[in-house]
Design goal:
Layout lengths: L1 E10 L2 E11 L3 E6 L6 H8 L7 E6 L2 E2 L4 H6 L1 E4 L11 H11 L4 H15 L14 H13 L5 E5 L7 H16 L3 E6 L2 H7 L2 E6 L2 E6 L1 H7 L5 H9 L1 H18 L1
Parallel strand pairs: 3-8, 3-9, 6-7, 7-8
Antiparallel strand pairs: 1-2, 1-4, 4-5, 9-10
Helix pairs in contact: 3-4, 3-5, 8-9
Bound molecules: adenosine-5'-triphosphate (ATP) and magnesium ion.
The site of adenosine-5'-triphosphate has 12 residues, from helix 1.
Length: 256
């Protein structure tokens, strides 16, 4: 279980996260849905003890993210955005390295790695050095690194970004299995379809603040919407979405 209590974080004068509270339960997939820059990654970095909140706190399996960092890390697997790899290690060595950091017994670690490799379809490159890996391959390796210690809580920051259709399905099936195993899963996304497919409950985050929390069905009902996208737009306001679309078009123009 992950419980966030009035988390706030500022960068200089900018409020990236403002009084964010929610509870993600065991056996549940909890979505953090919001546009670019909403504060999803910042919230997830706070939960994973990488970033200290200015105010508020959170617990992971009951351990406080401020005072019990080691216990929090032992009970949490996290897949971060833009995670990098040690290019001169093989994919397997990257995962073993993390397993050893967690103090896992050798046999247990290798069994966990074999399972992840099969599940994510990594057999063809597991013993290759990761330098030069494609985005999707890198994503799979860092996902494996997050899961090697079999954590009861899993945080996934845009887990399917950059993956092909087959890999995306594999990741979604894995998330479904985590839920069946009674783990607590938090995932961030801006994909409505992903939320509809996977999430039991979702918090809509916008400009650092939570605007609504509930099951997709509840949010649609409360906002008289026939689909989640309509509910989302009503919750965060159409104006905000237009601004985001413009920004994305601009940056696409610049990059390509
Ligand atoms: N280290 C930092 N220094 C300054 N500003 C930051 C820092 N980290 C995040 N921010 C700002 O905080 C806001 C929230 O960023 P965050 O990465 O949490 O958004 P996000 O919801 O994950 O967005 P995306 O969907 O694009 O990944 C953004 O305006 C971002 O520029
Ligand atoms: Mg992000």
């Amino acid at each position: 279980m992950i419980h966030a209590e009035a988390l706030s974080k500022r960068f200089k004068k900018f409020h990236a996260v403002e009084s964010v509270s929610f509870e993600a339960r065991d056996g549940e997939v909890f979505g953090l849905l919001g546009p670019n820059g909403a504060g999803k990654t910042t919230t997830l970095r706070i939960l994973s003890t990488v970033l200290e909140p200015d105010r508020g706190t959170a617990t992971v399996s009951g351990y406080d993210i401020r005072k019990q960092k080691a216990q929090v890390r032992a009970h949490l697997g996290i897949l971060v955005e833009n995670a990098g790899l040690y290019g001169n290690l093989t994919a397997r060595e990257c995962m073993q390295y993390i397993g050893r950091l967690h103090g896992l017994p050798h046999a247990q670690m290798n069994a966990a790695i074999d399972r992840i490799v099969a599940e994510l379809g990594m057999t063809s490159f597991i013993d290759r050095k990761t330098g030069g890996f494609s985005r999707g391959m890198t994503r799979k390796v860092v996902t494996g690194m997050a899961l090697v210690h079999n954590p009861p809580n899993v945080i996934l920051d845009e887990p399917t970004a950059g993956l092909d259709v087959v890999s995306m399905r594999a990741v979604r099936e894995m998330i479904q299995r985590f839920k069946e195993e009674g783990r607590c899963v938090i995932l961030s996304t801006h994909l409505m379809s992903e939320v509809e497919k996977l999430c039991d409950r979702v918090a809509i985050i916008h400009r650092g603040a939570i605007m609504a929390t509930g099951s997709p069905a509840e949010l649609m009902q409360q906002h008289h919407a026939s689909d989640l996208e309509t509910a989302f737009v009503r919750i965060i306001g159409e104006e905000a979405l237009m601004a985001e679309a413009l920004r994305e078009a601009e940056s696409e123009k610049r990059s390509g």
